[in-house]
What does this fold into?
Amino acid sequence: MKQWQVLALALVAGAAQADEAAVRAAVQRLLPNAAIESVQPAAMADVFEVVANGEVVYVSADGEHLLQGRLYDARQRTDLTASTENGLRRAALSKVGEEKRIRFAAADEKHRITIFTDVDCGYCRKLHKEMSAINAAGITVDYLMFPRAGQPSASFDKAAFVWCAADRQEALTASMLSGELDAAKRRSCAHPITDTMKLGQRLARLGTPTIIASDGAVLGGYLEPAQLVQRLASVKEAPAQP
It folds into this structure.
């Protein structure tokens, strides 16, 4: 490589670093407590895409302007912000092992979804009553407990009771149908409810239920089995979860 080419690359790299510094400073000025997770050039010229506290924002390269909204590719008619958000959810969920999930597996699995659920949520109960039809459609469901009332609360305690039951699937179904777990079957144990609740606060912006496909896309809240199958048909990428 010629000396002038090396110099040109060095100047470009230096400018990029200067731009990123200005972008980070702008975010910190507007959001002093924000935890900046990533900064990278956006598809739009002279704009950076920033992920802070799990949110996607856009900042001009000079650090003078910050935009919170959707960025679209006008030619392809695609939501570029959604693509980033899907990737963030997919990465976060890939770190959640089987030891934090309650799985209802399909015999002939075609899709696997994650549902943030709460035993005190009416639509969560309605959705769970259709589990047989969901599984029959080839959809495996991984539940993550998300007691919306937080901790301490009766909802949090119920989620913990479900997790600590000898048969979690049976306990979850019983809780969804009756709203309670048989007192005689209640027991204490170490559980991941605090962790999955915090993850739900970040990823389940729809509340409960929030249904997330294996590619990180949010499919919706409550969906009938036929609607769920239809939404999953549009999922292009479905990497296997744990």
Q: What stands out?
A: Helices lie at 3-30, 80-94, 122-128, 131-136, 154-164, 168-178, 193-203, 225-232. The two ends are 46 Å apart (CA to CA). The chain has a mean pLDDT of 87.
